Amino acid sequence: QVQLVESGGGLVQPGGSLRLSCAASGRTSSGYTMGWFRQAPGKEREFVASVTWSVGAVDYADSVKGRFTISRDMTKNTVYLQMNSLKPEDTAVYYCAARIVSLPSRSYQGYTYWGQGTQVTVSS
Length: 124
Prior knowledge:
The protein is mainly β. It is built from no helices and 11 strands. The strands form 2 sheets. Strands 2, 4, 5, 6, 9, 10 and 11 form a 7-stranded mixed sheet that branches. The chain is globular and about 40 Å long. The termini are far apart.
């Protein structure tokens, strides 16, 4: 089992920044892929970004490319999502997820472990 705990959400004005953290514990492995997804009210969960633990290969949704950066700190077993130039349409619950293979995926069905989510609200 792998436990994932997100933190760092909150209320921010348009154009502002937030950094989300996802602390992993339990049976973690360098062979995993870590992902961030988000879900707005009335919408389906959508892919945001992913990174492989081993080599740090990253992938981004087109909607966040150039604004968001995913990274990992292997010494802390933590994945980060730096979000800059935030827009109201970025408002959602953000979820951290772990995929038990070192292969990026944009499908939430490919991820086995999930955190509880953290709310991000972008509003003036």
